[in-house]
Amino acid sequence: MRRTFSTVVEEANVASEVISPPHKHSANEKRLYRRLSELGATGGTVAHTLNQYIREGNFVKKIELERCIRELRRYGKYQHALEVMEWMDKRDINFSNTDFAVRLDLISKVHGVSEAEGFFNNLSPQLLNRNTYGALLNTYCKLKIADKALALFKEIESKNFTTSLAFNNIMTLYIGLDQPEKVPPLIEEMKKRKIHLSTFTYNIWMQSFSLLGDIEGVERVFEEITQDGKETCNWTTYSNIAGAYIKAGLAEKAESALKMLENEIKQQHPSREPYHFLITFYSALGNQEQVHRACSLLKSSFETTSNMSYRIILQALSKVNDLEGMKKWFEEWESNFTYYDTRVANVVISCYLRHNMIEEAELVFHESVKRSSGPFVQTLVLFMKHYLMNQQIDLAMKCLETAAARAESCNWYPHSDNIDVFLEHFEKEKDVEGAEKLFKILQKLNCVDDKVYSHLLQTYITAGKTKPDMGQRIERDGILVTPELENMLKKKKTEKKIAPVTSPIRKEAEAVLGTDMTSSPVPAPFSGLNRHADLPPSSSPGSAPSPFLGPNLPSSLGLGPTPSPLLGPVPYPSQPPSPGSGMGLPPSPFSETAPFPDPPSSAPGQGPGSGPSPSGFFDHDVALAIESRIKQSQSDAQLAMDEAKKLLDDPTIATSETGVCLSKCIDKYGTSLNELNRAITDLGVREVTLLADDFGAVETDISTCQSCFTENIGEDSPLKALEEATTKAARECLTVMDYAA
């Protein structure tokens, strides 16, 4: 999982783990959890799995189900965790106060804040305690619904339910709102009221100083934690101080903190998570030797190495540009995996493409096709971006076409920056047929907007061709006619009356310009940007077509002469899996149990411009550019949420279908804000793949909101402009990432 701070209940669970010895799972419990964790791959249901398990003669204890729920939550399988609780409820298994808090938290994650509020309001008075209040407060803080969070915090204080957990949530809110200066005063208030400072409290406190650029403040907090052997000091403490030092560019101090982290790991024998931190941090420091040592330490500490761990290892080796080491570990994974996770393969493919090793990337892709049913949408996107950067538009179009055919069940659609490259190419080349072909693909993916139509119209105008029904098409697709689009339509109508060569107006223009307006050369995409100066001749634009799309490509991909049999609805896994399933999306080391700041913008001793940085590791200026766009997107999403709430204040709107959609949109805005907050975290360790996931999730959330209006009411969202501004800023982040890669 990639969030910076844990939920209320997760924090309590982890705190208890620190004090008590680690639980040894029974054989039955392991078998049950493995079945539940594999549901994302097998497509079964929780109820059927549990019932079948009991029919086989197994007895399930409540404590075993609770541990399965905790593991499922830990790896982001919220839907399945909630279904376990619903199954327990139907069997009249008694819930504790903590169980109700866990269920509220899961409802908020799966169904949104409105459903969580409904669940909370329907609880009996005796269940409205500090646990359930804390879970709802955590939901508000996580989604950065500041007004409701602060109001609920006051209510919690009035009921004398205040604990360190409540303060932690409010401090997390301030961190998310980019107001770290408000954290230290809350710490002082806690000390004044003799409220216990937990490990999480100290971690948030350290992070606030780090965000304020006060490394001495970070060190003061660290000294306070470690003095007198406080039990609040655990491996997350050392990971936080290491992260702060990396952010400040203090490599020696960071490595010293990582040694303390390693010693703590050896003493506590915890989960794989701290090893993931260790590996990622050493890669952020550019220390290839320590990355290898930490990877070996992880492997030797557990009976098996999970898909999640392999992905962390491969990402780290990719960052330090150790392609041979990456290849070795990938081959080991290929010979040992329990489930073929295409995301692991994508890490290697992405690295090879970044180094222009197209044949190696294609070989990995071929093996993926043999071993997995796909749908390979994200893999195809990696190749598409590579071909776009190399101006191989035909190959990029084939990748897009195939990805679109498989994307129906994945809720995927291409980012606008990639669409723009296609559209600008067709416009400059006066390629009306290519533009129309792209238009049809985008139409199937519901990606057509006024910008796409503007490019399409401009392509017709540039090519001197007409399309009389363009206005009708725009109206039929429900596209808002902007002033720019209206002017282009008028211009197109005017040009229909002008013969291209014989018109006196055109001849006069050609005489003044001294050029033939119908045949003047057009600059190629990315003109003026020397993107291929370092590429070998075989990889440069204009080289022979890649065998990736040649006759030797497996026909099942749908890219060769044989139609693909896999173009149907094959779901692409979207939840971070568990170690048991092997479907792992590795958590960013900025996880729930260890909040800490981002690493520096460049490896120690290597400032921007001093040499090639580790793959996926942006320099300071690029990181700042991405961060500014993330914050712009956050601002637009927050403004959209505020405006939606104002509209709902009108009773006539609140009770209408528009009100239903607005309520749904508020949930989606909140989810988008959460994803953007995660993006800030992932930017800290320069996780390019995870950043792309974050921005893609934002677009999906906003699209879901807009679909509610268009499909149920037949009109655009009243907040369409703000929604598009939110996604535009997120897409611009991807543009910056692509050009910086």
UniProtKB/TrEMBL annotation:
Keyword DNA repair: no
GO molecular function: enzyme inhibitor activity; mRNA binding
SUPFAM superfamilies, per database record: Plant invertase/pectin methylesterase inhibitor, TPR-like
Regions of compositional bias (Pro residues) in chain numbering: 562-579
Principal location listed in the UniProt entry: mitochondrion
Designated name of the protein: Pectinesterase inhibitor domain-containing protein
Record region (Disordered): 512-619
Biased composition (Low complexity): 536-561
UniProt entry keywords in alphabetical sequence: Mitochondrion, Repeat, Transit peptide
GO CC annotations on file: mitochondrion
Family per record: Belongs to the PPR family. P subfamily.
PANTHER family: OS01G0301000 PROTEIN (PTHR45717:SF8), OS12G0527900 PROTEIN (PTHR45717)
Domain Pectinesterase inhibitor: 586-736
InterPro entries in alphabetical order: Invertase/methylesterase_inhib, Pectinesterase_inhib_dom, PPR_rpt, TPR-like_helical_dom_sf
Gene3D superfamilies given in the database record: Invertase/pectin methylesterase inhibitor family protein, Tetratricopeptide repeat domain
Compartments where located: Mitochondrion
Cited NCBIfam families: PPR
PPR repeats: 129-163, 198-232, 341-375
